[in-house]
Give the backbone structure.
Amino acid sequence: MTEQAQKYVGGGVPRKEDPALVTGRATWTDNIKLPGMLHFAVLRSPIAHGKIKSIDASAALEMEGVHAVFTGEDLNGEMAAPLPCAWPVTPDMKHPAHYPLAADEVKHLGDGVAVVVADDRYIAKDALEFIDVDYEELPVVTNIEEALKDGSPLVHEEFGTNECYTWPMPVGDVDAAFEKADVVVKTRYIQQRLLPNPIEPRAVVVAPDPVNGGFTVYSSSQVPHILKSALSGICGVPEQKMRVIAPDVGGGFGQKLNVYAEEALGVILARKLGVPVKWVEERSESYLSSIHGRDQIQDLELAATSEGKILGLKVKLTADMGAYLQVFTPGIPLFGAFVFPGVYDFEAYTFECTGVFTNKTPTDAYRGAGRPEAAYGIERLIDELAREVGKDPAEVRRINFYEPFDEPTTTPAGIQYDSFNLQAAMDRLLELSDYESLREEQRRRRESGDPVQLGLGFSTYTEVSGLAPSQVLASLNAGGAGWEAATVRMLPSGKAEVVTGTSPHGQGHVTSWSQLAADALGISPDDVEVIHGDTATAPLGRDTYGSRSAPVGGVAVHLAAGKVVEKAKKIAAHMLEAAEGDIEFEGGRFSVAGSPDQGVTIQEVAGEAFLGVNLPEGMEPNLTADSSFDPPNFTFPFGAHLCVVEVDTETCRVKVRDYYAVDDCGPVINPIIADGQIHGGIAQGLAQALYEEAIYDEDGNLVTGSMMDYLVPGAPELPNYTLDRTVTPSPSNPLGVKGIGEAGTIGSPPAAINAIVDALSEYGIRHIDMPASPMRVFQAIQEAKGRSGGVQEADREGRPGQATDHQTNPGGESL
Amino acid sequence: MNIKNEFTVSSPPDEVWAALMDLEGVAPCLPGAALTEQVGDEYRGTMSVKIGPLSAKYNGTVRYSETDEANRRAVIEANGKDARGQGTASAVITSTLSEEGGGTRVVVETDMKLTGRAAQFGRGGIAQDVAGKIMARFAECLEERVF
């Protein structure tokens, strides 16, 4: 397309979405009310594992306002297929059939058992209490290491094992690297299980289409297009008869990147009863029935020289799948395979992951999805290495960084990073934070015996963003179709419509795509309407996750707009009676080179294209173009973060005093939005580092089953962030953009833990598991002083995947 | 979940033992508990508890699984299911009596298993607190009513 100055891209254009959101005019799925609509509620298993001996719903059916009660036995036969897992990671992966309602056996707390359809949701919920289910309890396994032992209770008896799969990836001669190493750091880190908390829980409304047949599904989903295809297959409805609409969606964080039982139930009930039905999730229900995040044990070995140069890395993961496989469950930890080598230049690497079934809610994508886990592993390791070789962690990072590059470079994991300049990000970070002064303050506090110690923690990381090149997905056995589609059309009035297959749920696509289209077309962002989230109006799309929207979907918008301008240029040349090669395009106006007075605006061209009266010979009317962009590679945003903590060694409270982040996602489309993504991402990562943990007891009860027990931090717990960026364009797309949606979540957990360990390193403390609660800090200090820390929660050898502090320590966190 | 409660009553162990062996006499002392019928050596009954915002009414059975008069040790097994499908509760309650200053020290060790909502409410030790309160009132009542 014609070169022109970027007017709106890169500028802080205020979000077009916000007036509706902040004045309560947004339309959430729960706001949708249809004539004759009934409501359903799901009866969930109160136990983690058991056979369903009988279900008596007679008392519920007698209640006024109750229309129907169905069990798994009633409904599962009406389904064309069980709920899908789209990523069979190995040919021999164990894949249990997963139906919306368990018919014979419940496998985890919250597993659906029956559904009540009633006049309103209150009657439906009340009626659940009158369904009598008789269970025969079965033995429960919640700990992934126990689950792999002989004699463990089996989640799925038919497999004879709880091992779902083992996925190996050997690269380079790792043993040779370890043989010549001066230093080997061997360690075990725990990625605790997390509960995603989008501000809007899930919700679904399904309406039968009385005119054309088929169904319209409204769902609080990140993935209306994926959901459309999946529901079509599950429910046996032809794809062209299925329409999915994601209205305003209040956050997703990967939890809504899925195909859920209640969405399928909605279609089946609407079909069976012939009326619209609605289901809205409650928060505590969400904690049982929507996917969880993380939950893996990392056994890691790092080989290095005495100078701190990395020679090789061995990674062995044991990852909790939960009781069933949701859409991407088995693949999530495997993203880590590509991220574990991090931003460090070395050769020898092995990665192996074993997925394990337990009687818990399934895990799946949660902001970062496999990448925060891996970045945590390597970023904690490099701090341990720095301590081992007696160097500053900044220096050890620097001697291992890749030299800056702007063309793809192959990594030990066998993929190609697109462009890096960690040195520039690190330089800027040290300057921004005045690192030397902070170290000086740390020395002062140590020398004066200040009970409040200062800790500095780095994280220099990359993420795999911009999912995904279709070929790569296919090679990983994850199907393909990683492209994204866009249509740009000029209307007769000269305004533009941008149709995108991405599906925003808070990220501000409407604003960003308006900026991209406005710059390409030379019009105002106010004149651009962005159409999304409805498979009828945006029929082609692969939705929003994996920091893909800008580097895949945004690029498609840019390319489609470029095609519009190309066609417009031909029409302009015809209108101006000039050769196309003589036409210049700037600021929305086509003019003849050398005669700037002779020109037409793109709006005028759009009008002409619509009328179709004065077009070049053989040209079709209208000014519209499609693009489907399949990225040639992922993009690899990177960053350097520094977390500054104050650890009170008396109260054991950790305060994040400052947080500095220098991120590089290539050229930024909208700095306000990019900063917002980084702010939220850092907050979500600090939440994992310091506060959040989903805890199951040995009977499979989720004892952090409400927001009273699951600690989601708020603004008072978080510092002011000091942000800056460097700009290293990606060679993978014409905009040079990289994803930024998950960067903060990937960078911040290791930065925070590195900082806490740094603060306490004088005690000889080498590691504290997440979340670094006052209890864990207390125990670490006590143990370092040779005293019993009470509960052995911080014991890295013996700590199970899910320790249960309430069992042995009824006081919980209150110590 | 293991809960240990201790209390003393002013009567001697013989009398307390006799009282404890009379399930029908003791049951009213347990707040929320009621026995409804006896089938063989097993009683049917209900137990209502309120844990924070949750209330549960468990229907179930209770019986002595072990009575060791010589050592003044009795084990009660109770199993219940919430009337409104909110989960189950089971408990093995071991009571041991010993003489203390003319009165009796009663040590009650409860191994309790909860499922459903009550179990998901447990991280802050609320269920334990509730059990502790119930036992304290049980002790008071025992003192007043039986002796």
About this structure: Chain A is about 30% helix and 25% strand. Residues 17-23+483-629 of chain A form a domain with the Aldehyde Oxidoreductase; domain 4 fold (CATH 3.30.365.10).
